[in-house]
Amino acid sequence: MNVIHHRESYERELPLILGNDDYEQSNTKLNCCVNNAEEVQANDLILFYYSGNVHQTNEECYLIPIQNQHLTNGEAIPDLAIPLETIVRRLSNEKKQPFALIFILD
Questions:
Q1: Angle at CA 68, nearest 5°, toward 20 and 91?
Q2: Domain map (residue ranges) of the chain
Q3: pLDDT per residue over 83-102, tens digit each?
Q4: Count of C-beta atoms within a 10 Å radius of residue 32
Q5: For residues 39 and 33, what is the distance between their CA atoms, to the nearest angstrom?
Q6: pLDDT at 105 over 70
């Protein structure tokens, strides 16, 4: 049986802003992306904003790293990019228990 705990409020509002500009392949370089991260604690309201290249394959979203010279085709992406699901799991594990996670991929 699953028990859902309802919290009336959260401790802190915490933005996690990640940005990648300097991609190795010239056709994927970006401008004006921000890079900032904060430590997550229990009961935080987390806004995760990613400004960079994202690729979806096999119904999974991947954040593309700036060192992406080996990502010449879609087959390499699951092995070399960062699955969004991994970030979700790390931010919402039992120890951290955030109040809410909001993801924006730009």
A1: 50
A2: 13-105
A3: 999 888 888 877 778 888 88
A4: 7
A5: 20
A6: yes
SS3 call for 94: coil
pLDDT of residue 30: 58
CA-wise closest residue to 28 among 68, 83, 77: 68
pTM of the model: 0.65
SS3 of 26, please?
A: helix
d(CA 75, CA 69): 14
Q: Which residues pair with 104 in a beta bridge?
A: 49
Q: Using pLDDT thresholds of 50, 70 and 90, give the confidence band for residue 39.
A: low
DSSP 41-91: -TT-EEEEEEES-EEEETTEEEEPPS--TT-SSGGGHHHHSEEHHHHHHHH
Token digits for 106?
């730009």
92 with 37: CB under 8 angstroms?
Answer: no
